[in-house]
Design a protein that fits this description.
about 600 residues; alpha+beta; Phosphorylase Kinase, domain 1; 19 helices; binds adenosine-5'-triphosphate; kinase
C-alpha cells in the first residue's frame, strides 16, 4: 500500500495504477475492484504512452529494466526460475511429492493459460488433457516411490535422512507419509445426502422468516465466509421439505445473504438463480433455492464442509493439502468449467475462493453472479460491478477493453489458480514484499527455476493421490458408473458419446486420403474427445454443426485411455496430423498400440486390423 489513502492496484498486464481509498468501495482482503465507472476511469489512466511501456514490459528483452514493484509476485516466480532456484516458488508443503517433470508440465500449463494473448491460451480440452498427463506422470512417480519403499533397499534408504531419488523428485526425498487428504473441517456436520433432489429446474422459494430460523437469525457465529455479495451463513433445514430446522438437525445448507450496500448484488442474485438453477454437474455447486422479499435477496446452496480452495492454500491454520489432492481439485474445477463453457456460459473471473470443497475435497464451482451466456445479446444486462472479477485474476485483454469477456478470459483465471495451487501464494497480495505482489509476474520471471514457485507447505509431505486410481479420477459423471454405482443426479449420458462422433463421420468422409485411425473409445476420453471434436470443428469450419462439441466435453467416459485396443472396436478417421499427435501422446503414456489405416468404411469408421 503506497499510503494510508492510496493503494496500488496492478491491472492489465500488471501495470500499477494509483487509486484513492474512495475508489475501492469494498474492503476485502482480495481487493475486489470497484464499480464499473471506476474501472473505466482506471483504464483511461492507461495512456498510450503507458501502453507502450506495458508492451515493452512484456518483452523479455526489456524485463531487466523494469521497476521491480511493477512485476509483483510473478516477477518473483520468473526471477527464481531464471536463478535456477525452483524450490523457492513451490509450496514447501508439497515439495517432496512432486516429480520435477510433473512440476514442469504443470507450470508450463499455467504459463500457457496466463499468456497475454488469448489466442495462445490452450482450450479447455487441452487443459484437461494436460492435467490428465500431469496426473499420469505423477502417478508413475508415486508408483516408483512406492515400489522403491517396498524393496529391502528402499526400506533401508528410508531409514536415512537423504534421498535416493534426488534427480526426479523436486524435493528429492522418499517421504511417503500420508499428508492431509482433506478431512472434513467440520466433521460433526452432516453433508447434503447423495439422493438430494436435483436442483434443476425446480428451485425452492424460501420465505425470509424460514431462512432466519434456519440460521439463528443470521447469527455471526454461523458465518462461513464473506464475499462481495454479502455474508454466507451456515443454516439447517429438514431433509425432505427444506423447512427450517434446529442447528444440527436435518441437513446443513449455506445461505448467502445480499448486503444492502451491494449496488449490483440484485443483478448477480438474478444471474445466479438463472444460471445455476439450470445447471447440474458434479463439479458445480447445487443451488437449492432462493428468497426475494422486499430488499432481501438470498440464495441457498448445498453446504460444502471444507469451504473453498483458498481457505487451504493461503491459511496458516488449515492443514495443507497434499499435491495429489490439489491436482484432483484442479481437475474437478476444470471439468466444472468445461461444463459451463459447453453450455456457452463464462464464469467471468474464476478464483480459488470460487472452488468449493465437499467433505472429500471434491471441487465444485460456486459464485455464479458474474456468469454470462456467451454471445447473448442480453448478456450484459446483469453484468455486475465486479465485472473485472477480483484483482489479479482478470485477463489482460479484458482489463484493457472491459468488453467481450470470453472463454479465454476464464482460462486466464484458471491459469492463475493453477499457479496459486503450486505456490501457495495469492494471485495478488498487497502484503507481500516488493516484486512479489502479483503472482503471475513472479511466476513468469522465475522461468526454469520451478522449485522456487512451489508451495513451501508441500515440502516433505507424503505422496498421496487421494486414493483414486489412475483410470478414474472422480470428476466425471461416468465415475459412479465405472465404480459400479449409479448416481441418479448425474446420470452418465454414455449414449450421447457415440452419436457425437458418428454424426461427424459423414463430414470426415471427403478427407479420408491421408487419414490415420483412432479407436473411438480412445476419442471418448473426456479431454481427448473434446480436443478432437474441437479440431474437427475448426477443420470443418464450413459445417461446424456437424460436431456437437457441447456433448463431448462432459458426457463422455474416461475409461478408455488405459485400455488396449481390442478387436471390433470402432475406429474413426482423423486428420493425419491429429492421428500422429494422439498416437504419440498415447504411446508416450503407454496407452495405445499402433493404429492401422486399413478397414475404414466409406465414412472413415472401421475396425482395427490385427
Ligand atoms: N456452499 C458453501 N458452503 C460452505 N462455504 C461456502 C459456501 N459458499 C461460500 N462459502 C464460503 O463463503 C466465502 C464467501 O463466498 P462468496 O461466494 O460469497 O464470495 P467469494 O467468492 O469468496 O468472493 P467474491 O464475492 O468477491 O467473489 C467463500 O470463500 C467460502 O469460504
Amino acid at each position: 500500500m503506497a499510503s494510508k489513502h492510496t493503494v496500488q492496484i496492478t491491472i492489465a498486464t500488471h501495470f500499477p495504477i494509483k487509486l484513492t481509498a474512495n475508489d475501492l468501495p469494498i474492503s476485502h482482503p482480495q481487493w475486489p475492484i470497484g464499480p464499473w465507472s471506476t474501472l473505466k476511469r482506471v483504464y483511461k489512466q492507461i495512456t498510450e504512452e503507458k501502453q507502450k511501456d506495458l508492451e515493452s514490459a512484456n518483452d523479455p528483452s526489456t524485463q531487466g529494466s523494469l521497476d521491480e514493484e511493477q512485476w509483483g509476485l510473478v516477477t518473483w516466480v520468473q526471477d527464481s526460475i531464471k536463478e535456477g532456484n525452483l524450490k523457492n516458488i513451490i509450496d514447501s508443503d508439497i515439495r517432496g511429492e512432486i516429480s520435477l517433470k510433473c512440476l514442469k508440465e504443470y507450470v508450463k500449463l499455467a504459463e500457457r493459460c496466463l499468456h497475454n494473448s488469448p489466442k495462445h491460451r490452450p482450450t479447455m480440452a487441452e487443459i484437461l488433457f494436460s492435467l490428465e498427463s500431469v496426473m499420469a506422470i505423477q502417478e508413475k512417480f508415486n508408483n516408483s516411490l512406492q515400489s522403491a519403499s517396498r524393496t529391502l533397499f528402499g526400506r533401508m534408504v528410508n531409514l536415512f535422512p537423504f534421498s535416493s531419488n534426488q534427480e526426479n523428485s523436486v524435493q528429492g526425498d522418499l517421504n511417503l507419509s500420508t499428508n492431509s487428504k482433506g478431512n472434513n473441517m467440520f466433521p460433526h456436520m452432516k453433508e447434503v445426502p447423495a439422493h438430494f433432489p436435483s436442483p434443476s429446474p425446480i428451485l425452492k422459494e424460501f420465505r425470509f422468516s424460514d431462512l432466519e430460523k434456519a440460521t439463528r437469525s443470521f447469527s455471526p457465529d454461523l458465518i462461513l465466509g464473506v464475499g462481495s455479495f454479502g455474508n454466507v451463513f451456515l443454516g439447517w433445514v429438514k431433509e425432505n421439505t427444506l423447512a427450517p430446522s434446529k442447528q444440527g438437525v436435518g441437513i446443513a445448507v449455506a445461505v448467502k445473504r445480499l448486503n444492502e450496500e451491494s449496488v449490483q448484488g440484485a443483478a448477480e442474485w438474478q444471474a445466479e438463480v438463472n444460471f445455476l438453477g439450470h445447471l447440474a454437474h458434479p463439479n458445480i455447486i447445487r443451488l437449492l433455492g432462493y428468497c426475494r422479499e422486499e430488499l432481501e435477496h438470498l440464495l441457498v446452496y448445498e453446504y460444502m464442509p471444507n469451504k473453498s480452495f483458498d481457505c487451504f492454500l493461503f491459511s496458516v491454520i488449515a492443514e495443507p493439502l497434499s499435491w495429489g489432492t490439489r491436482l484432483l481439485i484442479m481437475m474437478g474445477a476444470v471439468c466444472g468449467m468445461t461444463h459451463l463453457h459447453s453450455n456457452n456460459i463464462v464464469s467471468r473471473g474464476l478464483k480459488s475462493s470460487d472452488i468449493l470443497l465437499d467433505k472429500d475435497f471434491n471441487a465444485k464451482l460456486g459464485d455464479f453472479g458474474l456468469m454470462r451466456r456467451c454471445g447473448s445479446e442480453t448478456g450484459e444486462t446483469h453484468v455486475s460491478t465486479r465485472v473485472m472479477g477480483t484483482c489479479g485474476y482478470g485477463a489482460p485483454e479484458y482489463i484493457r477493453t472491459g468488453v467481450s469477456f470470453d472463454c479465454k478470459c476464464d482460462i486466464y483465471g484458471l491459469g492463475m489458480v493453477l499457479l496459486e495451487s503450486i505456490t501457495g501464494r495469492r494471485a495478488m497480495d498487497a502484503q507481500r514484499p516488493k516484486g512479489q505482489k502479483s503472482l503471475v509476474e513472479w511466476a513468469t520471471r522465475v522461468g526454469p527455476n520451478l522449485k522456487k514457485i512451489m508451495d513451501p507447505r508441500l515440502e516433505g509431505s507424503g505422496s498421496d493421490f487421494g486414493g483414486k486410481s489412475g483410470t478414474s479420477y472422480g470428476f466425471y459423471g461416468s465415475v459412479p458408473v465405472l465404480a459400479g454405482k449409479s448416481d441418479p443426479s448425474f446420470p452418465i449420458q454414455k449414449k450421447k458419446v457415440t452419436p457425437v462422433f458418428l454424426r461427424s463421420k459423414a463430414h470426415l468422409h471427403p478427407r479420408l486420403n491421408t487419414f490415420g485411425v483412432v479407436r473411438i473409445r480412445l476419442l471418448t476420453s473426456c479431454a481427448l474427445g473434446q480436443l478432437i471434436a474441437e479440431k474437427y470443428a475448426t477443420a470443418l469450419s464450413d459445417n461446424t454443426n456437424a460436431i456437437d462439441v457441447n456433448n463431448c466435453a462432459v458426457d463422455v467416459e474416461v475409461t478408455a485411455t488405459t485400455e488396449v485396443l481390442k478387436d471390433n472396436d470402432v475406429v474413426i478417421a482423423i486428420g493425419a496430423k491429429d492421428a500422429e499427435f494422439i498416437a504419440d501422446t498415447l504411446k508416450y503414456n503407454n496407452k495405445i498400440s499402433t493404429l492401422d489405416l486399413q478397414g475404414l468404411d466409406k465414412y472413415g469408421v472401421g475396425r482395427r486390423q490385427s
